[in-house]
Design brief:
The protein is mostly helical and about 280 residues long. Helix content is about 50%, strand content about 10%.
């Protein structure tokens, strides 16, 4: 049909065919889908970061010797035996000059995290740094002045206390025995220093042991051993810094939980005899 416009010009009227309607509808769908897709893509969250690595935990007990620490670190890191010892003996750790590169006494007992990238050097540095922080420079300085010993000697005394004391409550008395014997020029006669020299831990000391030629034989040599004999904890260090007053010169742990301190040698001999009898009974049983 042809209509005329108001000006008299013929005007065509178009009718959309079915095919045209379908084409238009498809175009609208495509445009609409694209319009929806773009913001959806923009709103999609980025990939979540991987969860943080969960470390293994390495426990270093109080009183462990450096050799035990080295073995534990090698095992925790899957390193060949002897790897950590080589790092420790490299002289790169931040130790007191008196230590002469030997970290014994400064590998602080605690629980340390171990990651995939952890190295022996990193762990040892962490232990030494923790020892400096937990012992406290000011506290150690006050203790050295009070007791007339050097910082390194105080750590050595703390290591003896750690090895010898049966309970935390006994630590202060053991430290006092050490100071009293040093003051009187007496040999310390500590089994723990012999055990360190022999690389063992035992309650039984023979007469042959006490005649051993070693700087750690405090039976036949006066004064402190040349180095700490283990790695003491904070409580042992507290005992070395500020032991209680007392005149004790002798002690023996007769049974677990029963350590007897005295200034009388005859009384000490009776206590030692009771200890020997208890040991014989334990071996026979």
């Amino acid at each position: 049909m042809v209509n005329e416009s108001p000006q008299g010009t013929p005007r065509r009227r178009f009718r959309m065919t079915r095919r045209g309607w379908l084409t238009l509808a498809a175009g609208l769908v495509v445009v609409t889908a694209a319009a929806v897709l773009v913001p959806l893509l923009l709103l999609r969250e980025p990939p979540a970061p991987p969860p943080p690595e969960k470390p293994k935990m390495l426990l270093i007990p109080e009183g462990w010797r450096a050799t035990q620490v080295y073995s534990a670190v090698d095992k925790a890191l899957g390193a060949p035996s002897g790897t950590t010892r080589q790092v420790a003996e490299s002289g790169r750790l931040k130790l007191p000059a008196d230590a002469q590169g030997n970290p014994e006494g400064f590998l602080f007992p605690a629980t340390y995290p171990v990651y995939k990238k952890t190295t022996p050097r990193g762990l040892l540095d962490y232990m030494v740094r923790t020892a400096h922080e937990r012992f406290g420079v000011d506290r150690l300085g006050a203790g050295t002045q009070r007791n007339g010993v050097s910082l390194y000697q105080m750590v050595t005394i703390a290591s003896i206390v750690q090895a010898e004391a049966d309970t935390v409550e006994d630590m202060g008395k053991v430290a006092r025995v050490v100071y009293n014997r040093l003051t009187q020029g007496m040999a310390l006669q500590m089994d723990s220093t012999l055990n360190y020299a022999l690389g063992r831990s035992t309650l039984d000391t023979s007469h042959a042991d006490t005649r051993m030629d070693s700087p750690y034989n405090t039976y036949n040599r006066q004064g402190l051993p040349p180095t700490p004999i283990d790695n003491p904890g904070e409580q042992a260090m507290d005992a070395a810094i500020a032991p209680p007053p007392g005149d004790w010169l002798y002690f023996v742990t007769v049974r677990p939980g029963d350590t007897r301190f005295t200034a009388d040698y005859a009384e000490h001999q009776r206590n030692v005899q009771e200890f020997n009898e208890a040991r014989r009974g334990a071996v026979a049983g």
